Amino acid sequence: MLSKQFKAKLINLYPPYIGAGIRVAEINPEFTKIEVEMGLTRWNKNVKGVHFGGSLYAMCDPHYMWILMEHLGAEYIIWDIEANIRFKRPGRDTVRAVFEIPLARIKEIKEEIDQIGKNEYVFQTAITGETGEVVAEVVKTVYVRKKDFKLHATNIHTTQVLQNNE
Known about the structure:
- With 166 residues, the chain is of the alpha+beta class.
- It has one domain: Thiol Ester Dehydrase, Chain A (Roll).
- Helix content is 27%, strand content 34%.
- The chain contains five helices and seven strands; from the N terminus they run ααββααββαβββ.
- It has helices at 4-11, 15-20, 53-58, 63-72, 103-116, and strands at residues 22-27, 33-38, 76-87, 95-100, 118-128, 134-146, 162-163.
- Strands 1, 2, 3, 4, 5, 6 and 7 form a seven-stranded mixed β-sheet that branches.
- It is elongated and about 50 Å long.
């Protein structure tokens, strides 16, 4: 089985990340926080000479899902099911985003899923430029279900937004 840190290095070889110049810069030892960055290159510029919106979104996929997968394990089905990106200003330099789910929140999610079977969780982060200005805001919804849960047995509940970078 591959270590979490080795998997983190492998994701930098993912072709869409290579093409867009996206790089996982850091993952904390607990694997609860992932920092991603993307420099501005000729491969990820749009017609205006700033970061292409698709590349900005790509740098945000699939980190919340990945954190939950690593912590909850194979007994759970975890999918990104919805995403929204709101562009605030042009990205003209290296941009960064931080994806974090604290261990206490992961524990709450696990306990909730073990009790009710499935749920959707909403997470939010910001993509920032080198001087800290917000380039885009991203909201991701992640679906989590216990594998042995009967799909028709309960309703999905949506929990409150977990906000990063406040």
